[in-house]
């Protein structure tokens, strides 16, 4: 198990904790089956919000807990559930978060995974607190033969959910294949607050034509954040999530920079002249040519950035490794979108960016600081050799 607070390698210089959560309910992840949901339903595992605790909250079944919690087992066997990922992809690691489960946390887990051709047509519905799986649900799930799925995390101990040790990190680098479904096993029973499944989406690009318009940086299309200067209030990966942001927490928000001058000056376009900036770098899901940029400041009203700019480059796998290792201080960046004044709570559409040719990486820079809720890069895929795209990367690298 990887220790809390340490960087967890997912490739040369990469930390899988920065990757996307492919199972979160906000990207369509769902629990299809759970052996038992007596104290709290398994669907809680996939909530986007951080786990909560209310010392005075009880249900008719026992203490209210914000996670998946089964009854104390008095029969042979162990508890498990089947999760359908919202975004199929390569899994680099897991965070099994036991927040607030102390004295009732699951002592051990293992995780299995597979890639199914089609989604099973059954799924748990509604609040299942107080329920165990029925015989017909067991018969349905038996058809998946999930007990034989490859093991991504072997049987491993879990720490209880005290605030200093509630994150149990596991790497999954030994399993390079695309995954659509997981089986989470608790031995023998107990509670887990959240399961974060960290990886990179993998779309089937063979079915996409070079004439189709696609968001090349979107999470389901394989976009991934590979570096950033500041993520104090919200991680930049949130910007490539599905749909419109639900709140400020669903976007990228930096801390206020401390180097903002006492008296502010603007240039002729009304853009603030300040020394400070914040940035985030993404690898596109597929190399492509970008012809439309969207920058959304929805929800950021008193804290939107004054301006932004977008740069692009095309990197080979080795060049990408070098850039990650030197924290993106190098790179062959070209301007895609020159500095633009931004407005609060607004979707900015730029239909005529600088023609750039095929690119693999993008850097969004904001001045001096603030929040962006969504970042979209519409374009067309280009089938080029030698450049980095998730679908073309050797299995030894992400
Ligand atoms: N106090 C508890 O949490 N007890 C039990 N759990 C719930 N949720 O009531 C248990 O022992 O598993």
UniProtKB/TrEMBL annotation:
Q: What is this protein called?
A: Allantoate amidinohydrolase
InterPro entries per the UniProt record, alphabetical: Allantoicase, Allantoicase_dom, Galactose-bd-like_sf
Task: Read off the lineage from the record.
Answer: Eukaryota, Metazoa, Chordata, Craniata, Vertebrata
Pfam families from the UniProt entry: Allantoicase
Q: What family does the Swiss-Prot or TrEMBL record give for this protein?
A: Belongs to the allantoicase family.
User: Per the database record, which ranges form the Allantoicase domain?
Assistant: 28-199, 222-381
Question: Which NCBIfam families does its entry note?
Answer: allantoicase (TIGR02961)
Q: Which SUPFAM superfamilies does this chain map to? A: Galactose-binding domain-like
Q: Tell me, what is one Gene Ontology molecular-function annotation carried by this entry?
A: allantoicase activity
Task: Offer one example of a GO biological process linked to this entry.
Answer: allantoin catabolic process
Encoding gene, per UniProt annotation: allc
């Amino acid at each position: 198990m990887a220790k809390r607070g340490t960087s967890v390698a997912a490739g040369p210089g990469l930390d899988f904790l920065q990757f996307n959560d492919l199972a979160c309910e906000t990207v369509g992840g769902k629990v299809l089956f759970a052996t038992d949901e007596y104290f709290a339903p398994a669907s809680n595992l996939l909530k986007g919000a951080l786990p909560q605790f209310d010392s005075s909250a009880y249900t008719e079944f026992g203490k209210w807990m914000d996670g998946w919690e089964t009854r104390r087992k008095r029969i042979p066997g162990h508890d498990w559930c089947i999760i359908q990922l919202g975004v199929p992809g390569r899994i680099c690691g897991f965070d099994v978060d036991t927040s607030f489960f102390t004295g009732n946390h699951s002592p051990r887990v293992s995780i299995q995974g597979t890639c199914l051709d089609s989604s099973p047509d059954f799924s748990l519905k509604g609040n299942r607190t107080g329920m165990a799986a029925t015989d017909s649900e067991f018969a349905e799930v038996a058809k998946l033969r999930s007990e034989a799925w490859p093991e991504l995390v072997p049987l491993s101990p879990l720490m209880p959910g005290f605030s200093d040790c509630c994150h149990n990190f596991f790497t999954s680098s030994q399993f390079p294949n695309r995954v659509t479904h997981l089986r989470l096993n608790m031995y023998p029973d107990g509670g887990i607050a959240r399961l974060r499944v960290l990886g990179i989406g993998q779309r089937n690009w063979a079915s996409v034509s070079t004439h189709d318009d696609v968001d090349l940086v979107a999470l389901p299309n394989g976009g991934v954040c590979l570096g950033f200067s500041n993520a104090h209030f919200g991680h930049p990966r949130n910007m490539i999530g599905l749909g419109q942001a639900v709140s400020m927490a669903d976007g990228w928000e930096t801390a206020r920079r401390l180097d903002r001058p006492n008296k502010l000056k603007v240039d002729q376009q009304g853009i603030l002249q300040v020394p400070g900036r914040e940035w985030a770098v993404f690898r596109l899901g597929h190399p492509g040519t970008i012809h439309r940029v969207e920058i959304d400041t929805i929800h950021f009203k008193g804290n939107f950035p004054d301006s932004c700019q977008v740069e692009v480059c095309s990197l080979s796998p080795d060049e990408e490794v070098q850039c990650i290792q030197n924290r993106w201080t190098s790179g062959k960046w070209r301007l895609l979108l020159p500095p633009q004044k931004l407005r609060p709570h607004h979707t900015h559409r730029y239909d005529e960016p600088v023609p750039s040719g095929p690119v693999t990486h993008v850097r969004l820079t904001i001045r001096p600081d603030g929040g962006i809720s969504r970042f979209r890069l519409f374009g067309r895929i280009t089938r080029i050799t030698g450049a980095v795209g998730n679908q073309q990367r050797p299995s030894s690298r992400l």
